[in-house]
Amino acid sequence: MAGVAGRSGSKPKPTALKALAGNPGKRPLPENEPKLPKSDWKAPDYLLGDALAEWGRVVPILNACKVLTDGDLHTVVAYCLCVGEIAELARARKPIRSVTFSQFRSLASELGLTPASRARVQTVGSKEDADAAFFG
Fold first, then answer.
1. What is the 3-state secondary structure (H, E, C) of the chain?
2. In the chain, what are the domain boundaries?
3. pLDDT tens readout for residues 56-87
C-alpha cells in the first residue's frame, strides 16, 4: 500500500543539521522554515534522580552545539525520563522492556546523541572549538 504523498519515507533531516554538514546533497535549503528561539531552560520540577542528572549532563552539551530550541523541550524531557527509567529498573534488577530501549534510542538519535547520528554532522569552525563545545 502506498503512503501519503509527501509523508512517506525517511524523516527529513533538520535544516540546521544539513547546514552543519555542509549541505552534502547540494539541494537548496528551505528559506521559509520557522525559526524558533534558542533554549534557555530550567529543569522541570518533575525530573528527579537519574532523569535530573541526565538533564544536567546533556542540556549543556546540546546548548554548546547550538542544536536546541524552545521547540525541543519535550523531546529532551522525554529523553531524560527514559534514561531515568532505565537506570531505576537496572538498579532494582528488574527487566527493562524493549519498547523503553526503543524510545531511548529514537529520542537520543533525534537529539544527535548517538554515534551514528553524530557521524552525519560536521561542525563549523576549528576542531578545537568543536571539541571544547562538545566536551564542555
1. CCCCCCCCCCCCCCHHHHHHCCCCCCCCCCCCCCCCCECCCCCCCCCCHHHHHHHHHHHHHHHHCCCCEHHHHHHHHHHHHHHHHHHHHHHCCCCCCHHHHHHHHHHHHHCCCCHHHHHCCCCCCCHHHHHHHHHC
2. 52-136
3. 999 988 888 777 888 888 999 999 999 999 99
pLDDT in tens, 9-56: 666 667 777 777 788 888 888 776 666 666 678 899 999 999 999 999
Question: Which of 101, 130, 132, 102 lies closest to 118, judged by CA?
Answer: 130
Residue 65: all three cell numbers together: 552545539
Q: pLDDT band at 121, cuts 50/70/90?
A: low
Q: Which three cell numbers stand for residue 13?
A: 533531516
CB neighbour class for 89 (10 Å; exposed up to 12, middle 13-18, buried from 19): middle
C-alpha cell at 82: 527514559
**Which residues neighbour 16 within 8 Å (Cβ) at sequence distance 6 or greater?**
66, 67
